[in-house]
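If I may wish for something, please walk me through the protein I am sending here so I can picture the backbone:
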Amino acid sequence: MKTKSSTSQLVVRNLVVSVKTKHILYGVNTGAQSGDLLAIMGPTGSGKTTLLNAIAGRVQSTSGEITMNGQYFNKHLRRRLGYVLQEDVFMPSLTLYETLYFTAMIRITESVSLKDKQTRIDDIVKALDLKKCLHTVIGDFFVRGLSGGEKKRANIACEFLTDPDIMLIDEPTSGLDSTTAHNLMNQLKNYATQYNKTIIATIHQPSSQVYHMFSKLLLLMDGKVAYFGKASEALNYFERIGMPCAIHFNPADFLLALLSTDDETSKKIHEEADRHKKFENVCEQNPLSNGQHSHVNHSYINNSDADNSKAGLRTGGSAVSFDDVCVVGIDKEETSVHSHHAWPTSFWTQYRMLTWRQFRQSKGRILHKYEVIESLLLAVLGGILYFQTDYSYKTLRDKMGTIFFSVTYWGFNCMIGTVTGFPAERGVIKKEREAGAYRLSAYYAAKITSDLPLILITPVLFYCIIYWMSAIGDGVLFATFLGVNLLFCTVAQSIGHIIGTAMPDMKLSLKLVNTYMLFSLLFSGFFNTHLPDWVKWAKYLSIVHYAFGCLNILSTEGMPVLWCNTTSAELNPTCTGNTTIITIADVLKDSGIDCPYFCYTASLGILFIVLRVLGYYVMKWKR
């Protein structure tokens, strides 16, 4: 269900983009209108991708204007843009159909029926020849899935679903063989002409067949315009300034070689562009004029000082002037966006679909068979080592060891599992958020609720085994014991989420996880029972301390007093003789467990809430 767009016109005038003191784009002038396939070519580092990012609003321009039908771009107008990144980033565990279905449900307004959304998916799948791989997983480095060409078309298909008036595509033929590249560009050309769309694509080194599909061509050289006009007239222009192309030579290869030559040639190209070339204007024969004549600047550019003074640049920074151009009759109704809502769908729809996708993406990672087997084997091993341990002063330390082992394992497991899950998601979330697909709050809420049941399944199996094998307690205590452990897992997951969000470097993230967990173990009360006064406060920063204390109180609740005997009297200062008794409170206090169990449980609950809220703001800060 692709719709034919009303005629639209994009104009970029005197665009300057700088990062700190470095200029990337110098007074760039260009434009395109409905039905155009505008190719942006130039050597690596010439500013092609930066120009697309500036048009899409993902890079802040230093000065200049970007308008659509005479209106400055804003958040609503940019929803009429589709942007296909060079890197094809997807959730690797989803199939192609699931990816398209999610995009349709999250980015197409809710006023469109589910049937019409499905029709749109079917039309685009057919147009881009994706039928045979529709139910194939996207895949990644570890899992075989779609080929490079299929991923590229899938990337384009996701943007086509939103039915944009203007499509920006960064290197659509990158990594494709010549036949696949030609077919893809042919599909894009047909899409532009058939549905009255505007396509602006950066192309690095197209074949001659692909080159002749371009309706307009923008050549960038060191961030400056070397040529802008009809692609079919580019060779004639360079021949007139003394740079002819050899017969039967690929025009694209010739132009790229020309733009990558020595300083003398580049200087001549810029001088000729500034002084002698009359450039084609994007408003020629503009159907928006409704019978009126568009006012087009046809004068030769003899000196660009005036333009450059506006842009804050030196002479020679621009190749074409757009001053006083495109004064046309514009229908204000046609310039209105498709939807004036801040988001294409409601919070509930976004939350529901994000939860569905996150669950499908995380299920294979969290519940991987090797993860489950590892947990079950360790539970059985721990159960064998502490099998049916009775309660006595001699064995109480063993009981504590059982709990310490369990808490330590799941602290590391939940944190590392959460941190390592971020690389597969970070690029996708960044791409979708920059496209304005959904609220950050909807994603965060969906991630919490979708991962929660998955991350708790394996701990339940683990504790069902080790609890009964090591005789930690009775059936009445089991539910409470399990609940505290699962609460601890969610707190550990929250810390992993903050670290994974704040640190884009996986190696650094894992280092932080290991450092914090080892810190938590040292101050848990199991290794060091007599901390110096000046460092006792540090135990309150240890999540293992809270879980370890709470679980030990629960497991020893109701135990009878312990009698000292001659072989163990020296182990506890309370023992002064054979008849002296030791209470459980005395033993726990020696391990630094000196609060009621509800204090430890409440502390874990408060940590869970605080860390979840903090995690949202860290994600908002890092977006």
In short: Residues 276-339, 566-570 have pLDDT under 50 and may be disordered.
